[in-house]
Specification:
alpha+beta; 40 helices; 27 strands; disordered N terminus
């Protein structure tokens, strides 16, 4: 009877050169043949599902440069190690954040570690004799120098390289030997069979791409593949061997990728010999002709492109807990490789040999039959190029899941701002109804509030009431009985600035003409002037402010009242009659005007002031017509004009002698007094007592007639209709329909509240009120930003953005976006209405162009219009492919309910998952029955945290769906108790397959009693219910 011969497993390494002894940045491991091995840990730079073909091509180029640097006579080995780890909950002093961590606690997730190893090729003759290679100090130094160059290249290429030291080599060698990469691997006996290995209780299999008897590989291969399938994401770039990520039942996978670079001249001569040999035998066998042609192509590529001839080996080593799982994985790997044109060996009897070659740096043990010849470019297409996303290093982060379902820390603003990826924190969120948009926003806001954040939300759908109540925020709902009121006119002198005037001008015009009207230059000038004079009168009431102003400044000031310099001259009473108009003044022409100018001016004025033209004009002054007629009649006649001019010169000289003050200074002072007298008259007439809409309206009632009725600088009714203006604005005046909206000051405590939700659903269908309420809330936010400079701030506008997305408000939106950046803030616009954003110039110019961060949820509903969305949001094909993978991957295994979203910061984005704990779900829910049930628990247990703990506990005991628990709680109007639980189970048992709630509702209706009364009249026990 034959006996099994036991053999010791020799570790194929003999020792180290320690870098610290030689001043190197690394330790050198020596293989069993005396060959030096230098290792570098790297990160594969292509992030999984980054979708960009250029990323794969660029990394491919980097790897090719690595091979070129290392050069002839060397081996490049790349090991990609796929392990599984359990997520460990991070402690948090925030209840919901702690529950979030606990939700994922213990969940398995995959990691990828990648190392590159460089050593010398060992001649097969030496290997057979088990002799060490001849040591060369020159070759050794050359390898060290080349590895330093490789390190610099990898660093420049963002591969995050780290040289390996003794402890690192020991970690990877022991990990490979035990097939468990952990701090304390457990070693066990290795049992080898023809088909697999057994290491302790693990079953280990190595699948080599090269059959020992026949090489069956694809004739062509690219550095990457595409996802494939029939979906919109079919063209998404992925790694050629991305299927490794999809394997589930393994414990550890090591993908062994080896390139040996022989001396090129002898290798090419050998190839040329082989080609001639096969050409000579081509007549006897067509296969020889094919081989000869393939060798010729290879030689051509080497000559033309400067490619290296290499020998390559690729194998996948994996371990599983049971033989069945190992065989299932083997079947999946072989099937996936078959789709790539790789038919693996069915006679891989060299399992132990292949296993040993996976040990870091021990690719020297591979035999000639384990390798196949190709070019370096082609061989590198088989190299794995992907990595999993990792936490972003920042003190400010939000947590979402990666594509495999474990939390990732993502910095939405600080780090991207610091690195220049984005220039502002503003966000634009687009997701159709049902895509999880409100749920995601609740999650973001709840996380924001764990930081030093002030959040103001303008909502129209009761989406944030749960989070607001949980966080103890202010929930302000607009109703006719209790409208949201502000006094945007109230401010102190320090707050008075051009931006504030701009805001109030827009607000007044909005009330008067609506959001879709366009403000003319004349209308803007009038509204600006009335506001400037209104505040000037209020802030300077009782002050002789004009005493310290120059005459020029005072003339400019009167311009705000449409009173100009010539009007002061015309007002004789202002200065005791010193300024009298002559005929030239009456016609508005110069003293030296030509006769044609006199004719044109005279005829035009006579026509305008003719009595027949002013029959229905109550303000008509007939004296004006006769003055014009007299002036024109005189100046139009050359002789009479000459006599008039001489007379005027005599009068002027007489006035200078009799009436004019002796000096120019005295005359100027007299003119200044006339101006000040006019200002005093205005202040008496236009006294301002309060800053409110009422005060402003009263001021307009006195100011505008004076402003508009200056006959020399007349403003037509078409430009500014005073009666219409006052009539429309009266709705917001005391006693009007909206009389309190703009007259009652906002609660000052709002400025100290970190979280406020303005729920304005009740006014969204009111075309007049909706934009005005939205606008004054936004202005309150701006005031809040100025007051609380030391806090982060977010203004989140749900569908209410539509109220202000008009040409009129475009400038104000730009001002808002500009201001939030100055004050550590962000504006977030959230929408589900595609038609409202496509083609809206204001959305593009004011909102999208000023938002550097986009969040998109599942766009399947918008797929027919996605080209237009892509153009609007500047999404290239790569970014579109990422978006098309949302909710379309096979990544639901082992996860609770979640929705994915795309987060674009700057020019590129990533897809993450929004998966939360049950406690968070119950807080964020927008479903009214669920909100109601939570409220019953809060009423009973006093605090939200206690209520959430209890409802989750009750759900576990209940053993049924959340939907049914919620229905019971709402029927009972109390939290679940044993009595209700027993009753429900009894009913469910009694009425199997029927809608229990429909039966209960019918009974309640028939008996006209409450559910609580029904329960108390029933006699039952849980034991009876389940019998």
């Amino acid at each position: 009877m034959a006996t099994t011969k036991k053999q010791a497993f020799d570790i194929p390494f003999i020792g180290f050169d320690f870098g610290k002894d030689f001043g190197w940045d690394f330790d050198v491991l020596f293989g069993q043949y005396g060959n030096p091995i230098i290792g570098i840990r790297i990160k594969n730079v292509v992030e999984q599902y980054s979708a960009d073909p250029d990323n794969y091509l660029n990394f491919h180029t980097v790897l090719n440069q690595v091979v070129s640097i290392i050069g002839e006579g060397r081996i490049v080995q790349k090991l990609d190690i796929f392990s599984k780890k359990k997520y460990s909950a991070e402690p948090s002093n925030q209840f919901l954040q702690q529950k979030y961590s606990e939700h994922f606690d213990g969940r398995w997730f995959k990691t990828i570690e990648t190392i590159l190893l460089f050593t010398d090729i060992i001649d097969d003759k030496l290997k057979k004799k088990n002799k060490p290679s001849q040591f060369s100090e020159k070759s050794y130094k050359e390898l060290r120098d080349k590895c330093q160059k490789v390190f610099m290249l990898l660093k420049q290429s963002d591969c995050e390289p780290q040289f390996l030291f003794e402890k690192d080599f020991e970690y990877y060698i022991s990990g490979a030997l035990s097939m468990q990469f952990s701090e304390k691997p457990v070693f066990d006996n290795i049992k080898s069979t023809n088909e697999y290995l057994q290491i302790g209780n693990r079953f280990v299999k190595n699948i080599s791409y090269v059959d020992v008897e026949n090489i069956d590989l694809p004739s062509e291969i690219d550095p990457f593949s595409v996802l494939g399938g029939n979906g919109a994401a079919s063209e998404t770039a992925v790694d050629n061997f991305t299927f490794i990520n999809e394997l589930e039942d393994y414990e550890t996978i090591i993908y062994n990728q080896v390139i040996t670079i022989p001396l090129q001249a002898p290798q090419q001569r050998e190839l040329d010999k082989k080609k001639k040999k096969h050409e000579g035998a081509a007549n006897n066998s067509p296969s020889n002709a094919i081989i000869a042609e393939e060798i010729q192509t290879l030689l051509h590529n080497i000559a033309i492109d400067g490619q290296l001839v290499v020998n390559a080996h690729f194998s996948i080593l994996f371990s599983a807990k049971t033989l069945e799982k190992m065989e299932n994985i083997q079947s999946m790997v072989e099937n996936k490789l078959f789709t790539k044109g790789i038919i693996v060996s069915k006679n891989a009897y060299n399992q132990l040999e292949l296993f040993r070659s996976v040990l870091p740096g021990n690719a020297t043990e591979l035999r000639e039959y384990d390798l196949f010849m190709t070019t370096s470019e082609a061989a590198l297409c088989f190299f794995f190029k992907e990595s999993y996303p990792v936490n972003e290093e920042s003190n400010f982060y939000l947590r979402f899941t990666d594509r495999q379902g474990v939390p990732l820390k993502i910095d939405p603003s600080d780090l991207p701002m610091k690195t220049g990826r984005i220039n502002n924190r503003n966000k634009f969120v687009l997701g159709p109804s049902g895509s999880g948009k409100s749920f995601l926003m609740n999650n973001i806001i709840e996380q924001y509030l764990t930081y030093n954040y002030d959040v103001v939300i303008v909502d129209t759908g009761d989406s944030y009431s749960g989070t607001c109540k949980y966080k103890g925020g202010r929930y302000i709902q607009y109703t006719e009985e209790k409208p949201i009121t502000m006094n945007p006119f109230l401010m102190n002198k320090k707050e008075f600035n051009i931006e504030k005037i701009e805001f109030l001008t827009n607000l007044i015009f909005l009330i008067w003409q609506g959001p879709d009207a366009t403000m003319s230059a004349a209308q803007k000038s009038i509204l600006d002037n009335v506001l400037m004079s209104y505040y000037h009168q209020y802030f300077n009431n009782g002050k002789q402010w004009y005493e310290h102003k120059s005459t020029e400044d005072l003339i400019l000031y009167l311009g705000k009242y449409n009173i100009h310099e010539e009007d002061i001259f015309a007002d004789r009473s202002a200065t005791g009659g010193n300024f009298e108009k002559n005929y030239y003044d009456i016609l508005g022409i110069a003293f030296d005007a030509k006769s044609e100018e006199i004719k044109e001016a005279g005829r035009k004025l006579l026509k305008f002031y003719h009595p027949d033209k002013n029959v229905n004009n109550p303000d008509y002054d007939s004296e004006k017509f006769y003055q014009i007629y007299e002036a024109y009649d005189t100046l139009n006649d050359e002789e009479r004009r000459k006599i008039y001019n001489e007379t005027q010169l005599i009068l002027i000289k007489s006035n200078e002698i009799i009436k004019r003050p002796e000096t120019a200074e005295d005359w100027n002072e007299s003119f200044r007094k006339a101006i000040i007298k006019k200002i005093k008259q205005l202040e008496e007439k236009l006294e301002t007592k309060e800053l409110s809409f009422n005060g402003f309206y009263d001021y307009c009632d006195k100011f505008l007639p004076l402003y508009l009725n200056n006959k020399k600088h007349a403003i037509t009714e078409k430009e500014f209709n005073l009666r219409t203006f006052l009539f429309v604005l009266k709705d917001f005046y005391k006693g009007g329909r909206y009389g309190t909206t703009l007259n009652e000051s906002a609660d000052n405590t709002l400025f100290d509240e970190p979280f406020i939700v303005f729920e304005i659903d009740n006014v969204k269908d009111n075309p007049k009120l909706f934009p005005i309420v939205t606008l004054i809330i936004m202005d309150t936010f701006i005031q809040k930003m100025r007051l609380r400079k030391d806090r982060r701030k977010a203004l989140i506008i749900e569908e209410a953005w539509k109220a202000i997305a008009s040409k009129l408000m475009g400038g104000y939106i730009l001002y808002l976006y500009k201001t939030v950046r100055k004050f550590w803030g962000e504006a977030v616009v959230v929408t589900q209405e595609l038609d409202d954003i496509i083609g809206n110039a204001v959305v593009k110019d004011s909102i999208i162009n000023n938002s550097d961060t986009f969040i998109l949820l599942d766009q399947t509903k918008f797929k027919d219009n996605f080209d237009r969305i892509a153009a609007l949001l500047s999404l290239n094909k790569v970014e579109q492919n990422k978006i098309f993978t949302i909710n379309n991957l096979n990544n639901k295994f082992g996860r609770s309910r979640f929705k994915e979203f795309y987060l674009k910061r700057g020019s590129k984005g990533e897809v993450y998952g929004n998966e939360v704990s049950l406690e968070q779900y119950l807080t964020y829910t927008t479903e009214k029955p669920e909100k109601s049930a939570v409220e019953y628990y809060v009423q009973k247990y006093g605090s939200y945290d206690e209520a959430l703990i209890k409802i989750v506990s009750d759900l576990k005991i209940f053993g049924d769906s959340l939907e049914n628990l919620v229905a019971l709680v709402n029927l009972y109007q109390n939290p679940l108790d044993k009595k209700i639980d027993s009753y429900y189970k009894m009913m469910k048992n009694k009425h199997k397959g029927q809608n229990v709630f429909k039966i209960i509702s019918q009974e309640l209706e028939n008996r006209n009693i409450s559910f609580s009364e029904l329960i108390n009249t029933k006699k039952y026990t849980y034991e009876n219910a389940v019998q």
